[in-house]
Design brief:
The structure holds 2 protein chains of 2 kinds.
Chain A: H1 2-9, H2 17-37, H3 45-62, H4 65-70, H5 75-82, E1 88-96, E2 101-106, E3 117-125, E4 128-138
Antiparallel strand pairs in A: 1-2, 1-4, 3-4
Chain B: H1 2-8, H2 17-66, E1 69-70, E2 89-90, E3 93-94, H3 103-106, E4 116-120, H4 122-142, E5 150-159, E6 164-171, E7 180-190, E8 193-203
Antiparallel strand pairs in B: 1-2, 3-4, 5-6, 5-8, 7-8
Classes of the chains: A alpha+beta, B alpha+beta.
């Protein structure tokens, strides 16, 4: 009985070098398998969204829709937002220097997601400089 | 020496349960490794193709919507002369000849006049469409869509206030053999109408 009691009080070596190596090897294998099965493909989505946003601001400026929005007429900007591809959501805001937002429009029935691309464009209307901001995301 | 010789005559246990389990586990691991290697090779191949097509499609649609082409009067070249030796790039944007601009436009930035970048020329679109039947391969090569089995479909659509009306479809529709289809969109203008340009590049 004394001998057994003595053995119970002894502390054993739980982690051996073999166990540590085995754990490391297991972790490496798990990481390798995860990296193979996870989606790590080339992401061109943001680049595509950026192009759409730049195109949009160019179209709006060339057709004088931005000028109209400064005058308070948002009809054409809303029409343009509705014309965005069905899988793309967009907001357009117009600023006057540091006086904040003059107008803001968004595509109806569409919410900008966290992965948003923002582009800005300066334009001149009646000798004043304004800024247009376009936010686009996949919706 | 006698004792050693005596031991050699004893028969040992070659197969134990531990050994059988270890061999089974080893075989399972080897099979899994080959399966994973096969899967990853296929996946990498598909991703490489998709990335390649995505880059090619992005470059092609940028050339079409942002540039006039090289030469910029490529739409006037005769059918027989339309080849890669005479047409270096294709662009649908209207030609920006500053000398021909109205004086009221000359003072404005190029972005605010109705020429050049993303302002598309209806005549160039019609010409490209008419070349499609006989010069599809040349168009595809000039656009840089040169991968094995790569095909394209270009759609130009005008916004009517509620939906898009297709003006032209140029190229080939993806068929049942299309393994990968990548679609790129650009917005533009045709005679002040909001235009959507879609380019599908697909692989057989």
């Amino acid at each position: 009985m004394e001998k057994i009691g003595l053995r119970k009080n002894r502390k054993g070596l739980i982690f051996t070098i073999d166990a540590i190596l085995a754990i490391l090897a297991t972790i490496m294998i798990l990481i390798s398998v995860y990296s193979i099965f996870s989606n790590s493909h080339f992401n061109s989505e943001n680049n595509d969204l950026n192009k759409i946003a730049l195109d949009s601001l160019t179209v709006l400026e060339k057709n004088d829709y931005l000028d109209q929005s400064v005058s308070g007429n948002l009809t054409m900007i809303n029409n343009f937002l509705a014309a965005l591809p069905s899988n793309i959501c967009g907001n357009i805001s117009v600023y006057y220097q540091d006086k904040g937002i003059i107008t803001s429009s968004k595509k109806p029935g569409c919410l900008i997601s966290d992965n948003v691309v923002v582009t800005r464009r300066a334009f001149v209307f009646e000798h004043k400089t304004y800024f247009a901001k376009m936010e686009v995301s996949y919706g | 020496m006698v004792r050693y010789s005596y031991n050699n005559n004893k028969r040992g246990q070659i197969f134990s349960l531990d050994l059988i389990i270890a061999m089974l586990m080893f075989i399972v691991v080897i099979i899994l490794i080959f399966q994973i290697l096969d899967y990853s090779n296929n996946k990498i191949g598909l991703e490489e193709s998709a990335n390649d097509i995505s880059i090619i499609a992005g470059n092609a649609i940028s050339s079409l919507t942002e540039t006039e082409g090289n030469p910029n009067n490529w739409s006037l070249i005769s059918l027989n002369d339309f080849n890669e030796s005479n047409v270096f790039s294709l662009g649908l944007a209207k030609n920006s000849n500053f000398n021909n601009q109205d004086s009221s436009v000359k003072g404005k930035s190029m972005s605010s006049n109705n020429n050049g970048y993303i302002v598309l020329d209806k005549n160039k679109i019609s010409r490209l469409s008419s070349l499609n039947n006989t010069k599809y391969n040349e168009i595809r090569n000039i656009l840089g869509i040169k991968g094995p089995g790569y095909e394209f479909l270009l759609s130009v659509k005008n916004w009517n206030g509620n939906s898009y009306d297709t003006i032209k479809n140029i190229g080939r529709y993806p068929d049942d053999n299309a393994g990968i289809v990548v679609k790129k969109n650009r917005m533009g203008l045709i005679e002040n109408n909001i235009t959507l340009v879609e380019l599908r590049v697909w692989k057989r």
